[in-house]
């Protein structure tokens, strides 16, 4: 049988036109994608936002409470009593909870330390 | 009657055109020795256009990482160099996976688990023109309002009107000052990923 060349040519031409049309019609999207990674670390820490302020007069004593902030959910509080002698030298430093039975010296300071629990 | 005559003539004309086309389509080529016509010439007009190619030059894509300890106190800044290879106008777009540096821990009242930072884009063309913009990472998340948020396309991204095929000093800068937010930034590891795309822009 004789091959009808014209039909084959038409099919090829149609396919070429369709392909060309697809190439032209496709929306131009991003040609390349690249990524960069950003990391950072925030160490657990606590800090005093407002220190305790005690204002004593003959009549009244005003106490502004301290405020400590920790960036971790489980801070640890450590309260110590510091007893100082008349010369200003440290005599004892004991946890406040254990100091109930201890007689305090005339000069005593209460120190509260707040730290992150790691 | 006149109308019918016109209609008849029109019908004749249409039939004549169809007949002529049919006759043309019936031209058949045969193998050599099998017939008089051995080839048929068919003219096919093909029109196509090719958009300019645009991408990052070899080794010119912004890549790498930044890892900053205690960034809430010190802040950070880092530049990632960009070299384009675009033969025409282009657009660059950036998307942020988290819209900020995110911490996987669960936050609570008074605590923040997403740290803000800024992304600056500066691109320069071979002809000396340039384009630049700065956005908060929060506006680079999906649906963000930054001018170069999203995936680059012919209509999305920061547009550079000229070709850029050389090292023109283009860069992407990520930076953040020391954290000053009202809520405390929770301790832990923070991360984000930026995706940078480039596209031609007719």
Overall description:
The complex is a heterodimer of chains A (118) and B (202). Chain A has 118 residues and is of the alpha+beta class. Chain A has a domain at 46-116. In chain A, 18% of the residues lie in helices and 46% in strands. Chain A has one helix at 5-25, and strands at 32-42, 46-50, 53-56, 61-64, 67-70, 75-84, 90-95, 107-116. In chain A, the strands form three sheets. A three-stranded antiparallel β-sheet of chain A has the order 7-6-8, with no helix packed on it. A two-stranded antiparallel sheet of chain A has the order 2-5. A two-stranded antiparallel ribbon of chain A has the order 3-4. The longest helix of chain A is centred in the first third of the chain and has 21 residues, at 5-25. Chain A is elongated and about 75 Å long. The termini of chain A are far apart. Chain B is mainly beta. Chain B has one domain (54-200). Chain B contains two helices and 14 strands. Chain B has helices at 2-25, 71-74; strands spanning 54-56, 64-69, 76-82, 84-86, 90-96, 101-103, 111-112, 114-115, 118-124, 130-136, 158-160, 170-176, 184-185, 188-200. The longest helix of chain B has 24 residues, at 2-25. The model of chain B has no long low-confidence stretch (mean pLDDT 87). The interface between A and B is large, with 38 and 66 residues. Strand 1 of chain A pairs antiparallel with strand 14 of chain B.
């Amino acid at each position: 049988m004789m091959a009808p060349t014209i039909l084959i040519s038409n099919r090829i031409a149609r396919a070429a036109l369709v392909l060309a049309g697809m190439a032209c019609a496709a929306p131009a999207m991003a040609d390349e994608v690249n990524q960069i990674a950003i990391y950072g670390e925030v160490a657990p820490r606590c800090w005093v936002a407002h220190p305790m302020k005690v204002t004593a007069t003959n009549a009244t004593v005003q106490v502004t409470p301290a405020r400590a902030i920790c960036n971790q959910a489980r801070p640890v509080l450590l309260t110590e009593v510091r007893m100082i002698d008349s010369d200003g030298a440290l005599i004892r430093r004991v946890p406040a909870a254990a100091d109930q039975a201890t007689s305090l010296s005339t000069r005593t300071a209460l120190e509260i330390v707040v730290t992150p629990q790691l | 009657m006149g109308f019918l005559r016109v209609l008849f003539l029109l019908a004749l004309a249409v039939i004549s055109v169809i007949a002529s086309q049919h006759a043309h389509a019936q031209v058949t080529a045969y193998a050599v020795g099998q017939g008089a016509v051995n080839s048929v010439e068919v003219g096919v007009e093909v029109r196509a256009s090719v958009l300019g190619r645009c991408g990052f030059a070899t080794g010119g894509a912004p890549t790498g990482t930044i890892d900053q300890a205690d960034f809430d106190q010190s802040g950070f800044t880092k530049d990632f160099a960009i070299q384009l290879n675009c033969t025409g106008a282009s657009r660059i777009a950036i998307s942020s996976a988290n819209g900020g540096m995110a911490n996987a821990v669960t936050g609570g009242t008074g605590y923040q688990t997403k740290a803000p930072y800024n992304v600056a884009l500066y691109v320069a063309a071979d002809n000396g023109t340039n384009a630049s913009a700065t956005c908060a990472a929060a506006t680079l998340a999906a649906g963000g309002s930054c001018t170069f948020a999203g995936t680059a396309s012919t209509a999305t991204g920061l547009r550079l009107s000229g070709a850029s095929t050389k090292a023109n000093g283009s860069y992407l800068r990520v930076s953040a000052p020391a954290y000053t937010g009202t809520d405390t930034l929770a301790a832990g590891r923070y991360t984000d990923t930026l995706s940078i795309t480039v596209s031609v822009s007719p």
